[in-house]
User: Which sequence fits this backbone?
């Protein structure tokens, strides 16, 4: 009798395990099928959108009206955004595909900038038309290659899950038809990139003058850097500080220094000319908060002055747990110069500066010839949505969507429970930017 009970229990267990295994197998298959369907959808959508991009570029070349060109270029920008997103959804992380992604990014940026700049007053140049012809030819080549891959995928019922496995395991015996096809696409794009088209595109997109960044000030050596590091991080004199310098090809010649002492370690980049701190990170355990967010801002402001960053004004602050993060902007004649900005992180347990990012300031800073605004403040304010209640105003230089610095009226206003920062071009009244201000982050650890 006891034997039959044991047999019955074991039988039930075996059946239970079998059912559980079957269910797990079914769930696994369902997940694999869903992943495969997503890969197939992304691939066929990508092929379709590349086809459309090719056709739309051809349409632009055939157009003559500026009023028609702008929406057409905006459509190309939308399609390249879709295509770029679809590339990211394919299992190609282990397959070099950066040239194709760069092509999509560049053509998207070009089409967007051209669409919004006002083609009635600033029509396409001969150089831009020539570049569009090259893009048309290149997109046609990519389209043909992708169509070939699509034909083989449909004809032989190939699976993208096999591509993922082949890439992850580097299995050379597996069917790599899809991989080979995408490598052909990448090679085709690379051949164009090595030619003049990429140079022309870069030149059109980059309106800033080329050359090395000039920084004023006296040169510092390794001993100076070592002294600065010990002062900034409040280190003992015998602390070992490792220092390296950049090569001759760097846009900014600088020293990089690091240390590791008594449970904290830090990293600092400092310019060879002027001794300006470009970036800094200090890692250590944070204790209980003893300083307010405003106290931290004063610490950050004092630190910037000590490091030679003069005429800086705080324009944003936010707290993450026990760390205050502050954004400062350079001011010239009462005008905020937003391209010359610096970010500082302060530990709110004792006021230590634990982070700084000043590359934007170093790269962009120079004295500017600011034009007198053609619009009055009242005229610019009339361009703002009447439902926004203006609380504060000023003047600022920002970088617009075309990459140009523009002088604007800066308005801070409220709409409902939200605060917005609005920039109206001081010369023509164009609404350059509308930015919703971030609220102070909630400290969830304290709230819990």
Assistant:
């Amino acid at each position: 009798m006891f034997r039959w009970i044991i047999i019955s229990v074991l039988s039930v267990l075996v059946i239970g395990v079998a059912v559980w295994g079957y269910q797990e197998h079914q769930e696994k298959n369902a997940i694999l099928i869903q992943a495969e369907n997503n890969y197939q959808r992304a691939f066929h959508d990508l092929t379709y959108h590349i086809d459309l991009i090719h056709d739309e570029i051809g349409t632009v070349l055939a157009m003559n009206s500026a009023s028609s060109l702008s929406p057409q270029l905006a459509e190309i920008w939308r399609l390249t955004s879709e295509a770029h997103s679809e590339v990211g959804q394919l299992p190609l992380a282990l397959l070099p595909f950066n040239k194709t992604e760069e092509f999509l990014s560049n053509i998207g940026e070009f089409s967007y900038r051209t669409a919004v700049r006002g083609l009635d007053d600033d029509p396409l140049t001969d150089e831009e038309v020539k570049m569009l012809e090259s893009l048309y030819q290149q997109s046609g080549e990519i389209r043909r290659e992708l169509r070939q891959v699509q034909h083989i995928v449909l004809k032989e019922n190939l699976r993208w899950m096999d591509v993922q496995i082949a890439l992850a395991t580097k299995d050379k015996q597996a069917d790599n038809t899809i991989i080979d096809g995408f490598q052909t696409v990448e090679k085709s794009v690379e051949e164009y990139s090595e030619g003049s088209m990429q140079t022309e595109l870069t030149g059109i997109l980059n309106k800033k003058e080329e050359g090395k960044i000039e920084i004023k000030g006296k040169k510092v050596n390794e001993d100076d850097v070592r002294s600065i590091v010990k002062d900034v991080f409040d280190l003992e004199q015998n602390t070992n500080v490792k220092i390296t310098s950049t090569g001759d090809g760097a846009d900014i010649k600088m020293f990089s220094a690091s240390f590791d002492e008594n449970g904290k370690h830090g990293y600092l980049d400092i310019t060879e000319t002027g001794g300006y701190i470009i970036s800094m990170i200090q890692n250590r355990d944070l204790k209980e908060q003893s300083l307010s967010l405003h106290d931290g801002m004063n610490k950050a402001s004092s630190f910037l002055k000590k490091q030679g960053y003069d005429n800086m004004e705080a324009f944003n602050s936010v707290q993450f747990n026990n760390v205050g993060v502050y954004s400062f902007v350079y001011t010239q004649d009462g005008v905020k110069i937003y391209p010359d900005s610096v970010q500082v992180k302060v530990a709110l347990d004792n006021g230590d500066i634990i982070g700084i990012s000043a590359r934007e300031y170093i790269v962009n800073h120079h004295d500017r010839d600011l034009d007198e605004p053609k619009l009055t403040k009242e005229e610019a304010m009339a361009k703002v949505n009447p439902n926004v209640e203006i609380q504060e105003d000023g003047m600022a230089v920002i970088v617009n969507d075309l990459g140009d610095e523009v002088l604007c009226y800066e308005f801070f206003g409220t709409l409902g429970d939200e605060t917005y920062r609005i920039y109206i071009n001081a010369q023509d009244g164009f609404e350059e930017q509308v930015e919703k201000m971030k609220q102070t982050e909630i400290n969830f650890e304290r709230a819990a």
Notes: The chain has twelve helices and twelve strands. The CA atoms of residues 95 and 160 lie 13 Å apart.
